[in-house]
Amino acid sequence: MIWFWSFVTYSFIGFLLEVAFAKLSGGRADRKGLLVLPLCPVYGAGACLILALPGWVDERPWALFLLGGLTATAAEYLAALYHEKALGVSFWDYGNLPGNVQGRVCLPFSLAWGVLSLGLVYWLHPLLAPWLARIPAPVGWMMLATLLTDGGLTAALLRRQGDVSCLRWYSR
User: Fold this and answer.
1) CB atoms inside a 10 Å sphere around CB 38
2) Distance from the Cα of residue 131 to its chain's centroid
3) What residue segments make up the domains of the chain, in order of their start?
4) Which whole number is the average pLDDT over 95-119?
5) CA proximity to 40, closest of 21, 69, 13, 67
6) Which tens digit of pLDDT belongs to each residue from 55-88?
7) Cβ–Cβ contacts within 10 Å for residue 43, how many?
8) Distance between CA atoms of 163 and 171, rounded to whole angstroms?
């Protein structure tokens, strides 16, 4: 269950990062990935993939920066592709940023993911993992059911509406 709770926790932290980044940069403050839950699943997926990198990567900060950044960038690219092809929507467009690939990923954010990889592996996950391991299984099953329900509703709504603004029910 630790992988599941890591996914949920880092999806929530990603949501908080998105809100903070939007506030600081003057961007949209309502970016999220689900209809109800305050989660950005691409962050959870990216964090779990970074945590799954081989042990030798963790022992070399330069390798963690490089491979962590590439891993998170791959997760971001695949998430953008899924949103576009399967759901017919786009949550972000980096087309105007340097080193972008089809507007789905870009060099500045890839470098940011590399820095965040260092913080995740060396500081945040060691701090949170013992707490996440203590969450009782029934709570995990309830959260999984909630997450799957919200994810299914979100996917159906995005596919039907074709616009991420349909997730902004809380600002109407």
Assistant:
1) 15
2) 21
3) 2-134
4) 97
5) 13
6) 999 999 999 999 999 999 999 999 999 999 999 9
7) 27
8) 15
